[in-house]
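Lab meeting, item 3. Inverse folding demo.
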């Protein structure tokens, strides 16, 4: 049932040059949901986020967000509609301070969080606001990467492995942030390798394998589907 879907991805295909990587991705996300894309390395999860965001060179199929077809739009138009992207590599500029990094993405939509609100959400970042990007821990960089997207006014956020390489206590903090965003009505599409984290924050999980979505598992059914999932993930 895709009625009321905020995001509906249908038969999405994608290429890097001649290399055909996405072979028909189908999934939908309701407003206020947190969904994950799970799958083994190279399955096409990151590429799916890039294709939705309009930063993959060649893509086809359909990506409807809030009633608008995105497939032919450039990334900046997609951002302006309220889609935010937090890439795996975080994109923090080493030579700029926290404050300066925060101001990099343009405000694309009214209703974004103010810098002070973002610092309320991430108090440790506030203490570091004059520090250079290079001086930040991995966790602080991740919080900055998420925080500055909240400033843009994006209401749906695509996040690529936000917990990668972070200490458990920081992973918990990121988890609390996602819960807060969900309560506030944000919609989140999360690529995640940390299974336990995925289970703790998501409503539903889509399994990506060889450039296709091959399964959907509601979070409450995750335990019961563990064997099947392990087979998909190859763990
Ligand atoms: P990972 O967790 O390893 O990032 P993933 O599911 O996100 O896994 P993708 O990064 O989407 O996988 O990669 C899908 C396929 O596309 C892989 O076969 C990968 O080798 C290939 N690929 C990824 N980036 C590029 C690129 N810039 N140029 C060419 N091929 C790429």
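The presenter then showed the designed sequence:
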């Amino acid at each position: 049932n895709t009625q009321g879907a905020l995001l509906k991805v249908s038969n999405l295909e994608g290429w890097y040059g001649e290399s055909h990587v996405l072979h028909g991705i189908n999934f939908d996300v309701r407003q206020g949901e947190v969904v994950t894309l799970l799958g083994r390395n190279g399955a096409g999860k990151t590429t799916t986020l890039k294709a939705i965001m309009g930063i993959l060179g060649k893509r086809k199929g359909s990506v409807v967000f809030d009633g608008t077809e995105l497939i032919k739009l450039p990334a900046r138009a997609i951002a302006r509609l309220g889609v935010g992207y937090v890439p795996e590599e975080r994109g923090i500029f080493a030579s700029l301070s926290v404050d300066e990094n925060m101001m990099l993405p343009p405000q694309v939509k009214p209703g974004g969080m103010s810098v002070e609100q973002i610092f309320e959400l991430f108090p440790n970042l506030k203490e570091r606001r004059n520090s250079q990007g290079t001086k930040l821990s991995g966790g602080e960089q991740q919080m900055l990467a998420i925080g500055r997207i909240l400033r843009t006014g994006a209401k749906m956020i695509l996040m690529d492995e936000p917990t990668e390489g972070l200490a458990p206590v920081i992973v918990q903090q990121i988890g609390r942030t996602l819960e807060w965003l969900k309560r506030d009505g944000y919609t989140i599409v999360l690529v995640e390798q940390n299974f336990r984290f995925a289970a703790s924050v998501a409503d539903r999980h889509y399994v990506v394998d060889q450039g296709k979505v091959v399964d959907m598992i509601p979070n409450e059914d995750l335990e019961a589907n563990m064997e099947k999932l392990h087979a998909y993930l190859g763990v």
